[in-house]
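queue> pop job 88
queue> type: inverse folding (structure -> sequence)
queue> payload:
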């Protein structure tokens, strides 16, 4: 039921808003071409859909694995477990005084891969969840 409430209903409202806007513009006979109005409606509906999808993704990433409540997890600790030396390939471009690219080359840059152990706690059921995350940082 939560899936339906958080994803389907907002898309339904975005579609209804798009149709309402389209018919309102057609009724008033605004001197736009239909292609421009259709493009405008498409941009508005897609913007709303992307915003809703981003909000849902944010709350889904904080969902508790035991009680399944949304926006429940908060980070209580983050510690470095492992460090590994590594190399990263980076593209460098040389430019002249006019800003034009003269050449492009690939360079191997030293970096370090950090492995973090992250502890999160649910604010409803007090369950502690832990997971690891790797991050590659240039030296």
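queue> result:
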């Amino acid at each position: 039921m939560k899936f339906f409430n958080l994803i389907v209903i907002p898309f339904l409202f975005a579609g209804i808003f798009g149709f309402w806007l389209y018919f309102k513009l057609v009724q008033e006979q605004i001197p736009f071409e239909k292609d421009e109005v259709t493009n405008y409606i498409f941009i508005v509906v897609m913007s709303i859909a992307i915003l809703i999808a981003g909000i849902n993704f944010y709350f889904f990433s904080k969902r508790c694995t035991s009680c399944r409540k949304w926006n429940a997890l908060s980070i209580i600790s983050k510690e470095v477990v492992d460090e590994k030396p590594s190399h990263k390939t980076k593209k460098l471009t040389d430019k002249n005084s006019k800003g034009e690219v003269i050449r492009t080359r690939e360079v191997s840059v030293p970096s370090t891969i950090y492995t973090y152990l992250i502890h999160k706690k649910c604010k409803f059921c007090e369950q502690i969840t832990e997971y690891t995350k790797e991050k590659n940082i240039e030296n």
